Each structure stands twice: as structure tokens, then as C-alpha cells.
Amino acid sequence: MEVIVRQAMMNVIKPKIVFVLGCPGSGKGTLCGTLARKFNYRHLSAGELLRKEKVKVGSKYATTIDEHFRKGVMVPAEITATLLIRAIEKDPQAELFLIDGYPVTKDNFDYWNKMMASRVDLVGVLYLTAGEEVCRERILQRGASGSGREDDNEEVIRRRFRTYWTESMPLITIYQKQGLVKEVDSRKPLEALLKDVEEILQELLNTHSTILEKEM
């Protein structure tokens, strides 16, 4: 009977999620992309999903996304969550989903908890810190090098930073109180940063596995 119960639980194991948060320009996308390639994790960038949807022919969300991007304000929570959920459902067997740049507003946070909290396991939150000036310089350099992103300019950057401090930081505080946050200094060279984060992710996954075994 115990074997049957264990097998049933294995069949309903939820996707494992790590949110990767930090100031715009803190290196979330670069870090997640590198980790995904190295460990075959699934990297989902909220911003990249929105950018692809914005240019997708026939998308009912394209105009709304474009308008919000140009103003440097957050896209409605339902749209971002819908795109993330769609991407997760395409790859349910992935070992780990690294979701960067999400959630960034209370609306994001509330909508995700309403729609997905019971369907996934949030194993941790990586919080990348680099300092606003470092991040601003990175974004401007990215724009100067031809990123093609309409939000890589000084005016939009100021609005994005303001949104980050007023709306995103309170969410990080909530996750800190829940014991989920692992803070990492992302000013480090990528190789050193990867070493730190690899150790953190392994610790999070080991802890999650231990919890699952106890529940079985």
C-alpha cells in the first residue's frame, strides 16, 4: 500500500519554481540563460515572453503590451501570468523553472497566488543585488550596443527603477519573511556569480526533496 501511495504522489509532483528578482539591469536574464544551458533548467523570462507576444501576429494582447512597454509601466497581471502558465504547461517535466523578472507588482503576486500557488512548488527566490548606478550603466550599454529594446533608454529606465523600488521591493520583503529569499551580489564576474548561485540552487533543491520525502 505504501508503494502505491508513493507512486501516486510521484505522478502528481508539481513543477518546481525559482523566482529570480532584482533591479532592472541586475543580470537576471544573463544568469538564468547560462544556468539553463548548463543544467538543462527551463528559463522563462517574463519580459521576453511579453516581447515575443507583442510582435506575434493575431495576438489579442499585442497592443496592450506595446502601449505599456512604451510608457514604462507594468503590463496587466493577467496577461503576464497567462503567458507564464502557458509556457510552464508546455514543459511539465522540466526539472526546474527559473522565472526571471516576476512577480514585480502586488497585482502579479496576487494573481499568481490565486491561479498557480497550489499547482507549483515555489522552492525559493533568488534576489540579485547590484546597485542602481551599476544597473543603469548596464542597461544603457545594452541599448547602445543595439539591443532593440524600446525600454533601454534613460527616460524609461527611471520609471522602471521607480516601479522596482515602490512595487517590487515590498514583494521581496514578503518572500524574505517567508524564508524563501537567497540574496546574491550580482556585481561579481559571471563565473563567480554562477558558482554562488549553483550552490544555492542545489541547497534549495535538496531541501525541497527532503520535504517531499517526509510528506510521502
From TrEMBL:
Organism taxonomic ancestry: Eukaryota, Metazoa, Ecdysozoa, Arthropoda, Hexapoda
Superkingdom of origin: Eukaryota
GO terms, molecular function: ATP binding; nucleobase-containing compound kinase activity
GO biological process: nucleobase-containing compound metabolic process
Record keyword Kinase present: yes
Keywords attached to this entry: Kinase, Nucleotide-binding, Transferase
SUPFAM superfamilies for the chain: P-loop containing nucleoside triphosphate hydrolases
InterPro entries: Adenylat/UMP-CMP_kin (IPR000850), P-loop_NTPase (IPR027417)
Record bears the keyword Kinase: yes
Coiled-coil residues: none
Family to which the UniProt record says this protein belongs: Belongs to the adenylate kinase family.
Protein name: Adenylate kinase
